[in-house]
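Continuing the batch. This is chain 6 of the set; chains 1 through 5 are on the previous pages. Same settings as before, nothing changed between runs. Recording input and output for traceability.
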Amino acid sequence: MKKSDDFGFGTQIRKSPFFDATLDWGATGFSVYNHMYIPRDFGDPEQNFWNLVNEAILCDVSVERQVEISGPDAADFVQLLTSRDLSKMKVGQCKYILITNQDGGLLNDPVLLKLADNRFWISLADSDILLWAQGVAVNTEFDVNIFEPDASPLQLQGPKSRDIMVKLFDESILDLKYYWHREYRWNGISLVISRTGWSSELGYEIFLTDKTMGRELWNHIMLIGQPMGLKPGHTSSIRRIEGAMLSYHADADINTNPFELGLDRLVNLNVSHDFIGKKALAKIKSEGVKQSQVGLVLKCDPLKGPNTKFWTVKNGEQKVGKVTSAIYSPRLKKNIALAMVSSKAIEEEVTLQVETSNGSFTANVVDLPFYDPNKSITKS
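Output for chain 6:
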Protein backbone atom coordinates (compact mmCIF):
# COMPACT_ATOMS: atom_id res chain seq x y z
CA MET A 1 0.00 0.00 0.00
CA LYS A 2 1.38 3.38 -1.01
CA LYS A 3 1.12 6.33 1.30
CA SER A 4 -0.32 9.69 0.40
CA ASP A 5 3.00 11.34 1.21
CA ASP A 6 4.68 9.34 -1.59
CA PHE A 7 3.00 11.59 -4.15
CA GLY A 8 3.13 15.30 -4.62
CA PHE A 9 4.54 18.48 -5.98
CA GLY A 10 3.78 20.26 -2.73
CA THR A 11 0.73 21.55 -0.97
CA GLN A 12 -0.32 23.76 -3.90
CA ILE A 13 -1.84 20.70 -5.62
CA ARG A 14 -4.82 19.58 -3.57
CA LYS A 15 -5.75 15.98 -2.79
CA SER A 16 -9.34 14.83 -2.88
CA PRO A 17 -11.21 13.26 0.05
CA PHE A 18 -10.89 9.94 -1.80
CA PHE A 19 -7.15 10.22 -2.55
CA ASP A 20 -5.94 7.74 0.07
CA ALA A 21 -8.70 5.28 -0.81
CA THR A 22 -7.72 5.29 -4.47
CA LEU A 23 -4.16 4.42 -3.44
CA ASP A 24 -5.49 1.59 -1.29
CA TRP A 25 -7.41 0.24 -4.29
CA GLY A 26 -4.53 0.37 -6.77
CA ALA A 27 -4.11 3.84 -8.25
CA THR A 28 -0.51 4.26 -9.43
CA GLY A 29 -0.59 7.45 -11.51
CA PHE A 30 -2.20 10.85 -11.34
CA SER A 31 -2.53 14.00 -13.41
CA VAL A 32 -3.58 17.50 -12.34
CA TYR A 33 -7.00 19.00 -13.08
CA ASN A 34 -8.46 22.11 -11.46
CA HIS A 35 -5.35 22.30 -9.25
CA MET A 36 -6.05 18.81 -7.85
CA TYR A 37 -4.74 15.29 -8.35
CA ILE A 38 -6.96 13.00 -10.40
CA PRO A 39 -6.24 9.25 -10.63
CA ARG A 40 -5.29 8.31 -14.20
CA ASP A 41 -3.82 4.83 -13.82
CA PHE A 42 -5.36 1.71 -12.34
CA GLY A 43 -3.51 -0.57 -14.75
CA ASP A 44 -4.24 -1.31 -18.42
CA PRO A 45 -6.38 1.54 -19.86
CA GLU A 46 -7.97 -0.85 -22.35
CA GLN A 47 -9.10 -3.11 -19.52
CA ASN A 48 -10.45 -0.04 -17.73
CA PHE A 49 -12.48 0.68 -20.89
CA TRP A 50 -13.89 -2.85 -20.98
CA ASN A 51 -14.67 -2.69 -17.25
CA LEU A 52 -16.64 0.49 -17.93
CA VAL A 53 -18.64 -0.69 -20.94
CA ASN A 54 -19.31 -4.24 -19.71
CA GLU A 55 -19.64 -3.86 -15.93
CA ALA A 56 -19.03 -0.73 -13.82
CA ILE A 57 -16.20 1.43 -12.52
CA LEU A 58 -15.87 3.85 -9.62
CA CYS A 59 -13.87 7.01 -10.37
CA ASP A 60 -12.65 9.81 -8.15
CA VAL A 61 -13.71 12.96 -10.00
CA SER A 62 -13.50 15.39 -7.10
CA VAL A 63 -11.54 17.58 -9.51
CA GLU A 64 -14.95 18.54 -10.89
CA ARG A 65 -15.07 21.32 -8.31
CA GLN A 66 -18.38 22.95 -7.50
CA VAL A 67 -19.05 26.65 -7.59
CA GLU A 68 -22.08 27.40 -5.43
CA ILE A 69 -24.13 30.45 -6.32
CA SER A 70 -26.88 31.25 -3.85
CA GLY A 71 -28.81 34.24 -2.60
CA PRO A 72 -31.85 36.27 -3.66
CA ASP A 73 -30.49 36.98 -7.16
CA ALA A 74 -28.81 33.61 -7.79
CA ALA A 75 -31.08 32.52 -10.64
CA ASP A 76 -30.64 35.80 -12.53
CA PHE A 77 -26.89 35.80 -11.95
CA VAL A 78 -26.44 32.22 -13.20
CA GLN A 79 -28.45 33.15 -16.29
CA LEU A 80 -26.03 36.05 -16.89
CA LEU A 81 -23.15 33.56 -16.95
CA THR A 82 -24.52 31.17 -19.56
CA SER A 83 -25.85 31.27 -23.10
CA ARG A 84 -28.38 28.51 -22.40
CA ASP A 85 -31.91 29.59 -21.52
CA LEU A 86 -32.61 28.46 -17.94
CA SER A 87 -36.08 29.95 -17.60
CA LYS A 88 -37.77 26.54 -17.48
CA MET A 89 -35.17 24.77 -15.33
CA LYS A 90 -36.71 23.08 -12.31
CA VAL A 91 -35.36 22.33 -8.85
CA GLY A 92 -33.73 18.90 -9.01
CA GLN A 93 -32.75 19.28 -12.63
CA CYS A 94 -29.27 19.30 -14.18
CA LYS A 95 -28.29 20.99 -17.43
CA TYR A 96 -25.17 20.95 -19.57
CA ILE A 97 -24.29 24.61 -20.06
CA LEU A 98 -21.65 26.80 -21.64
CA ILE A 99 -19.89 29.72 -19.99
CA THR A 100 -18.40 32.18 -22.47
CA ASN A 101 -16.49 35.43 -22.20
CA GLN A 102 -17.38 38.74 -23.79
CA ASP A 103 -15.86 37.60 -27.12
CA GLY A 104 -17.86 34.37 -27.21
CA GLY A 105 -14.84 32.25 -26.26
CA LEU A 106 -15.56 29.15 -24.23
CA LEU A 107 -14.43 29.37 -20.60
CA ASN A 108 -16.02 26.15 -19.35
CA ASP A 109 -18.66 23.57 -20.29
CA PRO A 110 -19.96 22.48 -16.88
CA VAL A 111 -23.06 20.72 -15.63
CA LEU A 112 -25.40 22.97 -13.67
CA LEU A 113 -27.42 21.56 -10.74
CA LYS A 114 -30.40 23.47 -9.41
CA LEU A 115 -30.59 22.64 -5.69
CA ALA A 116 -33.24 25.22 -4.80
CA ASP A 117 -34.94 28.20 -6.43
CA ASN A 118 -31.94 30.38 -5.61
CA ARG A 119 -29.18 27.85 -5.02
CA PHE A 120 -27.06 26.31 -7.78
CA TRP A 121 -23.91 24.23 -8.19
CA ILE A 122 -21.76 24.61 -11.27
CA SER A 123 -19.86 21.32 -11.68
CA LEU A 124 -16.72 22.38 -13.48
CA ALA A 125 -14.44 21.31 -16.26
CA ASP A 126 -10.80 22.39 -15.95
CA SER A 127 -10.80 26.18 -15.52
CA ASP A 128 -11.13 28.77 -12.75
CA ILE A 129 -14.81 29.67 -12.95
CA LEU A 130 -14.96 30.43 -9.23
CA LEU A 131 -12.70 33.42 -9.87
CA TRP A 132 -14.56 34.36 -13.05
CA ALA A 133 -17.95 34.33 -11.31
CA GLN A 134 -16.66 36.32 -8.34
CA GLY A 135 -15.09 38.83 -10.72
CA VAL A 136 -18.31 39.22 -12.67
CA ALA A 137 -20.28 39.70 -9.45
CA VAL A 138 -18.00 42.51 -8.28
CA ASN A 139 -19.14 44.57 -11.25
CA THR A 140 -22.86 43.98 -10.75
CA GLU A 141 -25.44 44.69 -8.09
CA PHE A 142 -26.69 41.11 -7.83
CA ASP A 143 -27.21 39.88 -4.28
CA VAL A 144 -25.38 36.55 -4.43
CA ASN A 145 -22.94 34.40 -2.47
CA ILE A 146 -20.28 32.68 -4.59
CA PHE A 147 -17.96 30.10 -3.06
CA GLU A 148 -16.64 26.55 -3.31
CA PRO A 149 -18.78 24.26 -1.14
CA ASP A 150 -17.63 21.06 0.54
CA ALA A 151 -18.85 18.87 -2.31
CA SER A 152 -16.74 16.19 -3.97
CA PRO A 153 -18.16 13.89 -6.64
CA LEU A 154 -17.49 10.25 -7.39
CA GLN A 155 -18.60 8.67 -10.66
CA LEU A 156 -20.22 5.24 -10.66
CA GLN A 157 -20.52 4.43 -14.34
CA GLY A 158 -21.32 1.42 -16.50
CA PRO A 159 -24.24 -0.94 -17.29
CA LYS A 160 -24.24 -2.45 -13.79
CA SER A 161 -24.23 0.92 -12.04
CA ARG A 162 -28.01 1.03 -11.65
CA ASP A 163 -28.15 -2.33 -9.85
CA ILE A 164 -25.26 -1.28 -7.61
CA MET A 165 -27.01 1.98 -6.74
CA VAL A 166 -30.17 0.08 -5.76
CA LYS A 167 -28.07 -2.06 -3.46
CA LEU A 168 -26.31 1.00 -2.01
CA PHE A 169 -29.48 3.00 -1.42
CA ASP A 170 -32.91 1.65 -2.35
CA GLU A 171 -35.23 1.19 -5.31
CA SER A 172 -36.22 4.86 -5.28
CA ILE A 173 -33.04 5.47 -7.25
CA LEU A 174 -34.79 3.81 -10.21
CA ASP A 175 -37.03 6.89 -10.48
CA LEU A 176 -34.08 9.26 -10.90
CA LYS A 177 -34.24 10.49 -14.50
CA TYR A 178 -31.34 11.31 -16.80
CA TYR A 179 -29.94 14.75 -15.90
CA TRP A 180 -31.82 15.02 -12.62
CA HIS A 181 -30.50 14.86 -9.07
CA ARG A 182 -31.77 14.03 -5.59
CA GLU A 183 -30.50 14.16 -2.01
CA TYR A 184 -29.91 10.98 0.00
CA ARG A 185 -28.65 10.40 3.53
CA TRP A 186 -25.77 8.07 4.29
CA ASN A 187 -24.06 7.59 7.64
CA GLY A 188 -25.64 10.78 8.94
CA ILE A 189 -24.48 13.02 6.09
CA SER A 190 -25.99 14.35 2.88
CA LEU A 191 -25.15 12.90 -0.52
CA VAL A 192 -26.37 14.59 -3.69
CA ILE A 193 -26.83 11.96 -6.41
CA SER A 194 -27.28 12.81 -10.08
CA ARG A 195 -27.87 10.77 -13.23
CA THR A 196 -24.86 12.30 -14.96
CA GLY A 197 -21.25 11.44 -15.72
CA TRP A 198 -18.32 11.93 -18.05
CA SER A 199 -18.34 8.50 -19.67
CA SER A 200 -21.06 8.22 -22.36
CA GLU A 201 -22.38 5.24 -20.36
CA LEU A 202 -25.25 4.74 -17.95
CA GLY A 203 -24.08 6.19 -14.67
CA TYR A 204 -24.40 8.32 -11.59
CA GLU A 205 -22.41 10.97 -9.77
CA ILE A 206 -22.35 10.86 -5.97
CA PHE A 207 -21.46 14.18 -4.34
CA LEU A 208 -19.97 13.78 -0.88
CA THR A 209 -20.67 16.82 1.34
CA ASP A 210 -18.31 15.95 4.21
CA LYS A 211 -14.68 15.73 3.13
CA THR A 212 -13.73 13.82 6.28
CA MET A 213 -15.74 10.82 5.07
CA GLY A 214 -14.04 10.22 1.73
CA ARG A 215 -12.24 6.98 2.50
CA GLU A 216 -15.31 5.53 4.24
CA LEU A 217 -17.64 6.32 1.33
CA TRP A 218 -15.24 4.95 -1.31
CA ASN A 219 -14.73 1.72 0.64
CA HIS A 220 -18.46 1.35 1.28
CA ILE A 221 -19.30 1.63 -2.42
CA MET A 222 -16.50 -0.72 -3.49
CA LEU A 223 -17.31 -3.38 -0.91
CA ILE A 224 -21.01 -3.35 -1.88
CA GLY A 225 -20.33 -3.16 -5.62
CA GLN A 226 -17.33 -5.47 -6.01
CA PRO A 227 -19.37 -8.72 -5.84
CA MET A 228 -21.57 -7.20 -8.58
CA GLY A 229 -18.64 -6.52 -10.92
CA LEU A 230 -17.55 -3.06 -9.79
CA LYS A 231 -13.88 -2.17 -10.36
CA PRO A 232 -11.88 0.89 -9.28
CA GLY A 233 -11.10 2.94 -12.35
CA HIS A 234 -10.47 6.26 -14.02
CA THR A 235 -12.23 8.32 -16.66
CA SER A 236 -11.75 6.52 -19.98
CA SER A 237 -10.20 8.49 -22.85
CA ILE A 238 -11.31 5.72 -25.21
CA ARG A 239 -14.97 5.95 -24.26
CA ARG A 240 -15.16 9.72 -24.00
CA ILE A 241 -13.65 10.13 -27.48
CA GLU A 242 -16.02 7.48 -28.86
CA GLY A 243 -18.80 9.64 -27.41
CA ALA A 244 -17.23 12.89 -28.69
CA MET A 245 -17.20 14.36 -25.18
CA LEU A 246 -15.13 17.51 -24.92
CA SER A 247 -12.00 17.75 -22.82
CA TYR A 248 -11.40 21.39 -21.93
CA HIS A 249 -7.92 22.66 -22.90
CA ALA A 250 -7.72 19.84 -25.46
CA ASP A 251 -10.82 20.02 -27.68
CA ALA A 252 -11.94 23.49 -26.61
CA ASP A 253 -10.56 26.56 -24.92
CA ILE A 254 -11.00 30.31 -24.57
CA ASN A 255 -10.25 30.75 -28.30
CA THR A 256 -12.98 28.31 -29.36
CA ASN A 257 -16.63 29.30 -29.69
CA PRO A 258 -19.75 27.13 -29.31
CA PHE A 259 -20.64 27.23 -33.01
CA GLU A 260 -17.27 25.77 -33.99
CA LEU A 261 -17.99 22.91 -31.59
CA GLY A 262 -21.44 22.22 -32.98
CA LEU A 263 -23.07 23.33 -29.72
CA ASP A 264 -25.55 25.73 -31.30
CA ARG A 265 -28.38 24.16 -29.27
CA LEU A 266 -26.83 25.61 -26.10
CA VAL A 267 -26.79 29.17 -27.40
CA ASN A 268 -30.18 30.84 -27.08
CA LEU A 269 -29.94 34.23 -28.74
CA ASN A 270 -33.69 34.84 -29.08
CA VAL A 271 -34.24 35.65 -25.42
CA SER A 272 -35.06 38.97 -23.80
CA HIS A 273 -32.39 38.74 -21.11
CA ASP A 274 -28.71 39.48 -21.62
CA PHE A 275 -25.82 37.11 -20.99
CA ILE A 276 -22.06 37.48 -21.25
CA GLY A 277 -20.98 37.02 -24.86
CA LYS A 278 -24.47 37.41 -26.36
CA LYS A 279 -23.54 40.20 -28.76
CA ALA A 280 -20.34 38.46 -29.88
CA LEU A 281 -22.08 35.12 -30.38
CA ALA A 282 -24.82 36.75 -32.45
CA LYS A 283 -22.13 38.22 -34.71
CA ILE A 284 -20.31 34.88 -35.00
CA LYS A 285 -23.54 33.12 -35.94
CA SER A 286 -24.37 35.77 -38.53
CA GLU A 287 -20.93 35.68 -40.16
CA GLY A 288 -20.44 31.92 -39.93
CA VAL A 289 -17.44 29.99 -38.61
CA LYS A 290 -14.15 29.37 -40.36
CA GLN A 291 -13.45 26.06 -38.64
CA SER A 292 -15.44 23.24 -37.10
CA GLN A 293 -14.90 20.21 -34.92
CA VAL A 294 -15.07 16.95 -36.86
CA GLY A 295 -14.45 13.28 -36.32
CA LEU A 296 -11.56 11.61 -38.08
CA VAL A 297 -10.63 7.97 -38.66
CA LEU A 298 -6.86 7.64 -39.06
CA LYS A 299 -5.50 5.00 -41.43
CA CYS A 300 -2.53 3.64 -39.48
CA ASP A 301 -1.56 0.91 -37.05
CA PRO A 302 -3.36 1.06 -33.69
CA LEU A 303 -2.25 4.05 -31.64
CA LYS A 304 -0.41 3.06 -28.48
CA GLY A 305 -2.12 5.70 -26.37
CA PRO A 306 -3.70 9.14 -26.59
CA ASN A 307 -1.89 11.96 -28.35
CA THR A 308 0.16 14.13 -26.01
CA LYS A 309 0.39 17.07 -28.39
CA PHE A 310 -1.75 18.55 -31.14
CA TRP A 311 -1.19 16.86 -34.51
CA THR A 312 -1.25 18.95 -37.68
CA VAL A 313 -3.98 18.22 -40.22
CA LYS A 314 -3.09 18.99 -43.85
CA ASN A 315 -4.72 19.13 -47.26
CA GLY A 316 -1.73 18.49 -49.48
CA GLU A 317 0.90 20.91 -48.23
CA GLN A 318 -1.60 23.30 -46.68
CA LYS A 319 -2.30 23.17 -42.95
CA VAL A 320 -6.07 23.08 -42.43
CA GLY A 321 -6.40 22.18 -38.77
CA LYS A 322 -5.25 20.10 -35.83
CA VAL A 323 -6.13 16.85 -34.09
CA THR A 324 -7.06 17.62 -30.51
CA SER A 325 -7.78 14.12 -29.12
CA ALA A 326 -6.91 10.76 -30.65
CA ILE A 327 -7.07 7.16 -29.43
CA TYR A 328 -7.42 3.60 -30.68
CA SER A 329 -10.87 2.13 -29.99
CA PRO A 330 -10.60 -1.63 -29.41
CA ARG A 331 -14.37 -1.94 -29.82
CA LEU A 332 -14.52 -0.10 -33.16
CA LYS A 333 -11.07 -1.41 -34.16
CA LYS A 334 -10.25 2.04 -35.51
CA ASN A 335 -8.04 5.00 -34.66
CA ILE A 336 -10.52 7.76 -33.89
CA ALA A 337 -9.87 11.44 -33.34
CA LEU A 338 -11.53 14.75 -32.65
CA ALA A 339 -10.11 17.56 -34.78
CA MET A 340 -10.66 21.24 -35.50
CA VAL A 341 -10.57 21.65 -39.29
CA SER A 342 -11.19 24.57 -41.63
CA SER A 343 -14.74 24.78 -42.93
CA LYS A 344 -13.50 24.98 -46.52
CA ALA A 345 -11.66 21.68 -46.27
CA ILE A 346 -14.73 20.00 -44.79
CA GLU A 347 -17.04 21.34 -47.48
CA GLU A 348 -14.77 20.16 -50.28
CA GLU A 349 -14.59 16.65 -48.73
CA VAL A 350 -10.87 16.45 -49.40
CA THR A 351 -8.64 13.60 -48.26
CA LEU A 352 -6.74 14.82 -45.23
CA GLN A 353 -3.33 13.96 -43.87
CA VAL A 354 -2.51 13.86 -40.18
CA GLU A 355 1.08 14.31 -39.05
CA THR A 356 1.38 12.07 -35.99
CA SER A 357 4.41 11.37 -33.82
CA ASN A 358 5.02 8.24 -35.92
CA GLY A 359 4.56 9.64 -39.40
CA SER A 360 1.96 11.10 -41.73
CA PHE A 361 -1.26 9.17 -42.41
CA THR A 362 -4.48 9.68 -44.33
CA ALA A 363 -7.70 10.39 -42.47
CA ASN A 364 -11.37 10.38 -43.37
CA VAL A 365 -13.94 12.78 -41.94
CA VAL A 366 -16.85 10.97 -40.24
CA ASP A 367 -19.94 11.94 -38.28
CA LEU A 368 -19.80 12.44 -34.51
CA PRO A 369 -20.11 10.77 -32.14
CA PHE A 370 -18.32 7.61 -33.22
CA TYR A 371 -20.53 5.35 -31.10
CA ASP A 372 -24.14 5.46 -29.84
CA PRO A 373 -25.09 8.67 -31.70
CA ASN A 374 -28.51 8.92 -30.05
CA LYS A 375 -27.11 8.53 -26.50
CA SER A 376 -29.46 5.61 -25.94
CA ILE A 377 -27.02 4.10 -23.43
CA THR A 378 -26.82 7.09 -21.10
CA LYS A 379 -30.55 7.74 -21.33
CA SER A 380 -31.57 4.12 -20.76
